[in-house]
Amino acid sequence: MPKAVVIRLSSLGDVVLASAAVRALADAGWRIGFITKPEYAPIYSEDPRIERLIEFTSLDKTRRQIKKFRPDAVVDLHNNQRSWLMTLGIGARTVRVRKRTLARRLCVWFGIGDRSPRSVVDDHLAALKKIGVNAPKTLPQIFPTEKGLCEAEKFLERLRPPIAVIHPGARYPLKQWGDQRFARLGNILKEHGFEVLFIGEPTGRGDFAYTGRISLEALVGIISRAALFFGNDSGPAHIAAALSVPTITIFGPTHPCLGFVPRGKFVAYLHSGIECSPCTLHGEGRCKYASPRCFEQITPELVAEKGLKLYRKSVFHQN
Question: What's the domain range around 96?
């Protein structure tokens, strides 16, 4: 069986999205090594498709580990200076993902280009064609760890299904829909018979269960047990989609055309379509208005309606 090393160092959502390429390679009979930063390694630590998980700590050490694995191909899904340096002279065929950096920046800076929703998963899978793996419809898929499931049970044991998990955070505050809106969403879900669990610290805006600060493994374990997931344009939404949990993602200053729409069996998103969005590539910066207008049209009622519809669809398919 041929061997491939897949490289995606960061960030959380991108590392999760790389699992589509892992899945396609495994289905095609490849033995797989995966390289990522230590903080994201739990995403693949108990993945049955990964033969060798390499935690990137230095270029020299990583190069030695790649050579020891002796891959037939290197699949570089990061495609930056660091990933180039770690693969030069390895002696394996290297294919690199096509990054659409210029197109994204033109869309953000000048509003130029196609605004259709995109996923970088398509770019990842296109790279695999260069080594004879043609699987354009492959979806991301990850696996919770035993430790993560045990940690999750501490939070879930007092909740009755169906459980809706809400992740109100994001790396950049500009991408956050807002605690007050999420609290209203939680109350609507409770009215429809859901138990609601918020990821993170209590905000004082409702009578809900909260996890507080948790590990990445616990986060994956909790989401894997959810009947429905809601979140901003951030990594946990990609985790939920890759676990086949019905996933609702809320886009504001970022845009589905930038390539980060979650990809999964049951996914949907909301975006206002306001003219000034996207105003940022990843969520950096500040809004030019007193409050982000891109979120004002996305009401908790609309989000709940979309989520409940997606949940009913998932239940229908399961039965």
Answer: 3-131
Q: How many CA atoms lie within 13 A of 144 on its CB side?
A: 24
Place of tokens 């980060």: 260
Helix intervals (H) in the chain:
12-17, 19-27, 59-69, 81-87, 101-110, 120-128, 146-156, 179-191, 216-224, 235-242, 293-296, 300-318
Q: How confident is the model at residue 281 (pLDDT cuts 50, 70, 90)?
A: confident
**Structural contact between residues 198 and 182, judged by C-beta atoms closer than 8 angstroms:** yes
pLDDT for res 256: 87
Beta bridge partners of 212: 200
Both tokens assigned to 222: 């909790």
Q: What band does 282 get if pLDDT is binned at 50, 70 and 90?
A: confident
Instruction: Say if residue 185 is in the same domain as residue 95.
Output: no
Helix, strand and coil percent figures for the chain, each rounded to 5: 40, 15, 40
